């Protein structure tokens, strides 16, 4: 095999329930703060689950012309905002001389769900002639990548992926491959989601997937806890700027960490439930470690998928034990979803940012609300409070409906 080009992370941007900047997000994680509350954007009186991780105080007009913003769904607003932040953080101006070498790969699990709901109502109440001509381009999944390209001038590879809750990791992993193979020098990549809507809350709720701890929203997302009762829907975007190492060094970019591994697998088991033994998740982690050429004993942190569902947390714990063996109890494993809720297609985006910062800032985000350990869930889940760490290699997992699994490996840069 020819030596693959090396890929580094140079820019980060996020909008999520803990804050509308990377610094707000990180300080929220370090404080062990919850971004979950009663839903404020619509009336939930007839819903079983009345809580969500909503983005607060976000103004699309801070990042977009107001007229343009009206022709985009909220999931596109989040992606544009986070992409602009990540590019500013990377100090990257996309001029004509590099535009062809800068690509965009932003995924979403569900896309413009609010637009779909609103326009379906218009159709049913007022007839087809009143449906917005912008309906389709507002709703479809590839529009975050399209709009970010149009607004920034990035003319390189432009695509999107949708693998439910594994979307963010798949998007970053595929973007990493694009840079490794030389099809671009820079990729703007990650995930975005705005699914705190009536149909999502009803659909996930009727699937019995959501927490109904409405009387204590901040404690509702409790991954690995014996009293976990489902996930909490979150919204937002997590976007990274990744670059070929020499390209980044030539322009004097700061580097957070190196992306060194990407693994995938399919459960081939069930539409919404993971393999109970965690074998699909284990294959994904093994593939990522092999791709990264690192041993399980090199790993100093795992950012878990950790959704707070009964089956999911159990299967992931079994997977970690299968991959790490006797070393498993010594690897810190935490779920930031305890604080943000589950951002679905954007989860991998914000969790990769958390993993990159854990390496770059030598600190591990905690799993909050973990007060009642489950007998079989006996790993080191970094309960309740953040802690210092000297990990040089970290994994982040994302597993989606349909049995689609993706794992990324992040490493401190060594020249």
Which secondary structure elements does this structure contain, and how are they paired or packed?
Layout: E1 7-15, H1 22-31, E2 37-38, E3 51-52, H2 66-70, H3 74-90, E4 102-107, H4 113-126, H5 135-139, H6 143-152, E5 158-159, H7 167-180, E6 186-193, H8 198-206, E7 236-244, H9 245-250, E8 257-266, H10 279-292, E9 301-303, H11 310-324, E10 333-334, H12 337-340, H13 347-361, E11 363-364, E12 387-388, E13 393-400, E14 404-411
- Helix tally equals 13
| Secondary structural class | alpha/beta
Distance between the termini: 21 Å
Indicate the low-confidence ranges by residue numbers.
none
Largest sheet: 10 strands, mixed
What's the overall geometry?
Answer: globular
Describe the structure.
This protein is an alpha/beta fold and 415 residues long. The chain is built from 13 helices and 14 strands. The protein has a ten-stranded mixed sheet with strand order 5-4-6-7-1-8-14-13-9-10, sandwiched between helices. It has a two-stranded antiparallel ribbon with strand order 2-3.
Please describe the structure with a list of short key phrases separated by commas or semicolons.
415 residues, alpha/beta, 10-stranded mixed beta sheet, two-stranded antiparallel sheet, 13 helices, 18% strand, globular
Summarize the structure in short:
The protein is of the alpha/beta class and 415 residues long.
């Amino acid at each position: 095999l020819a030596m693959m080009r090396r890929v580094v992370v140079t820019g980060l941007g996020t909008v999520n329930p803990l804050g509308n900047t990377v610094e707000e997000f990180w300080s929220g994680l370090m404080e062990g703060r919850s971004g979950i509350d009663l839903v404020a954007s619509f009336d939930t009186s007839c819903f079983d689950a009345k809580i969500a991780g909503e983005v607060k105080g976000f103004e699309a007009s801070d990042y977009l012309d107001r007229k343009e913003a009206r022709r985009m769904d909220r999931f596109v607003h989040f992606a544009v905002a986070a992409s602009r932040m990540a590019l500013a953080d990377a100090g990257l101006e996309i001029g004509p001389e590099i535009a062809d070498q800068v690509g965009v790969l932003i995924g979403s699990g569900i896309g413009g769900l609010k637009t779909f709901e609103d326009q379906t109502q218009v159709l049913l109440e007022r007839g087809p002639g009143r449906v917005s001509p912008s309906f389709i381009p507002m709703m479809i999944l590839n529009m975050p990548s399209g709009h970010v390209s149009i607004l920034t001038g990035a003319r390189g590879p432009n695509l999107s992926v949708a693998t439910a809750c594994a979307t963010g990791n798949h998007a970053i992993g595929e973007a990493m491959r694009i840079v490794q193979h030389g099809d671009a020098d820079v990729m703007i990549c990650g995930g975005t989601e705005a699914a705190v809507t009536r149909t999502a809350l009803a659909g996930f709720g009727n699937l019995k997937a959501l927490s109904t701890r409405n009387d204590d929203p901040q404690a509702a997302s409790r991954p690995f806890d014996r009293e976990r009762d489902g996930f909490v829907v979150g919204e937002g975007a997590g976007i990274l700027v990744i670059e070929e190492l020499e390209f980044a060094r030539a322009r004097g970019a700061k580097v957070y960490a190196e992306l060194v591994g990407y693994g995938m697998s399919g459960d081939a088991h069930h539409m919404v439930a993971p393999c109970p033994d965690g074998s699909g998740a284990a294959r994904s982690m093994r593939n990522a470690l092999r791709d990264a050429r690192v041993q399980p004993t090199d790993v100093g942190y795992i950012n878990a998928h950790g959704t707070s569902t009964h089956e999911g947390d159990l299967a992931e714990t079994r997977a970690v034990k299968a991959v790490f063996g006797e070393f498993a109890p010594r690897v810190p494993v935490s779920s930031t979803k305890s604080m943000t809720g589950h951002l679905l297609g954007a989860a991998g985006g914000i969790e990769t940012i958390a993993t990159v910062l854990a390496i770059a800032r030598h600190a591990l985000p905690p799993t909050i609300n973990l007060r009642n350990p489950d007998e079989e869930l006996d790993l080191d889940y970094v309960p309740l409070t953040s802690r210092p760490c000297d990990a040089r290699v970290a994994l982040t997992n994302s597993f989606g409906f349909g049995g689609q699994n993706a794992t990324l490996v992040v490493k401190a840069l060594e020249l």
